[in-house]
Amino acid sequence: MLVGTDSSKFPGAAERGAAWTFRRASELGLDGVFLRSPWELSATLDAGEMRDAVQVARDAGLYVQVGIGKVNPFTAPELPQIRAHGDGDYLRGLVRLVEQVTALGVHDLWAATCNYQFRYRSILACDRFREDVTWSDQLAATAHVLDRLGPVLRDHGAHLNLETHEEITSREVVALVEGAGPDAFGITFDTANVLVRGEDPVAAARRVAPYVRATHARDVALHTTADGIGRFLAPVGEGVLDWPTILRTLLSANPDLPVSIEGVIGMRAEMPLWVHDERWYDGGVDEAELAQVRRLTADYELRAAAGEVPGLVGLRAHLDDEAALDFVLRSAAALRAYAPVAA
Asked: What top-level branch of life does the organism fall under (predicted)?
């Protein structure tokens, strides 16, 4: 099983760039890097700089996956560099990124639908609950963008892998992929985000497994808060997820699947499950799966009360770069330990 890291939460990656990140990942014994953006390869998207950076990864025997941005057009204003890359047209910017990244020999591309605004402490932090546009309209607009991107992806032998992000259910991601065509679209399975939508991670893994081509692997701590239930990130093996079952499910469908750890920078990324707010249930929360999430929460709280895992204060504590790197390395060791069990 190939175990790598996501660059966006890897200490030093943002400041030092992709070539440094590839070298550092290799030094640490990791198998690859999942870059969130082509701009990590070159600040100006210079073809030579991008090619040279990817060659560093190739020479080290690392896998490389690269993100191209968000595909929900209602999120486009928050990514002005993509619109600028398309000379004013956001879709043209995405098309050009597909062309440039696939020219490097990278054919698994990441995308997501929306953002999460941590600066807001309300349900409106999640774009699913925007009041200026309905979620159904956002999904329809996203499907239209995917239809426009499909021919370009097919022409370049690429897959655009939509993330199970915190605003979208795994069922909705599957529907988008099946509607746009699995020959050009896949799924980036984020093991932690599905809980934000009240989903059982094992059930979600089974739903998405046929289409998963990329991953964001991290564990989850769940704790009751004033907002409802708080989801916090934890190193693999130290939270509530059933890793042997999840890995077995994913690898049975795709034995060559790279497993990329998405770590933490500064915080454990608390996201509330607004279980006391009627709006949170809009779009269909499965009651049986939510009941499993509540059981997982109760189990974690018992462990926290026994001092086995961090409680709420510890989960909200600041994490420095040393802790962030430790998160990745502990997760990598745990994943490799689970691999024989999951086989």
From this structure: Bacteria
The amino acid sitting at 113 is T
| Confidence (pLDDT) at 205 | 98
Contacts of 282 (CB under 8 A, 6+ apart): 129, 135
Residue 302 resides in a domain? no
Residue type present at position 263: G
Full residue range of the structural domain in which residue 241 is found: 3-221+231-271+319-342
- Report how far apart, in Å, the C-alpha atoms of 136 and of each of 57, 139, 320 are: 40, 5, 39
Q: Which amino acid is at 239?
A: G
Q: In whole angstroms, give the CA distance from residue 307 to residue 238.
A: 13
79 domain residue, yes or no: yes
- Quick one: pLDDT at residue 282? 83
Instruction: State the pLDDT at residue 328.
Output: 98
Which residue, 99, 101, 105, 80, is CA-closest to 90? 80
Question: pTM (2 decimals)?
Answer: 0.97
For residue 300, is it within any domain? no
Residue 10 counted as domain residue:
yes
Helix (H) or strand (E) holding 329: helix 321-342
Instruction: Supply the CATH number for residue 72's domain.
Output: 3.20.20.150
Nearest residue to 152 via CA among 105, 79, 92: 92
User: In this predicted structure, what is the pLDDT of residue 121?
Assistant: 86
Please tell me the predicted confidence (pLDDT) of residue 235.
98
- At 4, list the tokens: 């790598």
Domains in the chain, number: 1
Q: Which among 214, 233, 234, 232 is positioned nearest to 223, based on CA atoms?
A: 232
Q: For the chain, which ranges sit under pLDDT 70?
A: none
